[in-house]
Amino acid sequence: MHASHRGDDMLAQLRNVLSTVSSRFSDELFLRFELMKKSPAEIDEHLALPKNRVAAADFVSRFAAYCGQ
């Protein structure tokens, strides 16, 4: 799960490392919310939006299914 667009380079490097050290790493399981420069109240509002709640629930469901394999 990724919350900032500013970490894209770091994220690419982290994915590279994780795929090297683990045969179970999946780069298809991913969730991003752009929360940079938002206040805690704005983050709460953003995450409470129905589309974002559905996206988070879907991500957790897919991640749990992947872990259960």
Descriptive account of the structure:
The structure is a single chain. This protein is mainly alpha-helical and 69 residues long. The protein has one domain (5-67). Helices cover 59% and strands 0% of the residues. It has helices at residues 8-21, 40-48, 50-67. 0% of the residues are buried.
Structural class: mainly alpha
Uncertain runs are none
Into how many domains do the coordinates divide?
1
Major beta-sheet overview: none
Q: Can you give the mean pLDDT?
A: 87
Query: How much beta, percentage-wise?
Result: under 5%
Outline, from the CA principal axes? flat
Measured between the Cα atoms of the first and last residue, the distance is 20 Å
- The total count of helices amounts to 3
Write down the secondary-structure element order. Answer: HHH
Oligomer: single chain
What is the helix fraction of residues, given as a range?
55-70%
Summarize the structure.
The chain has 69 residues and is mainly alpha-helical.
Q: Layout of SSEs?
A:
Blueprint: H1 8-21, H2 40-48, H3 50-67
Features:
single chain, 69 residues, mainly alpha, flat
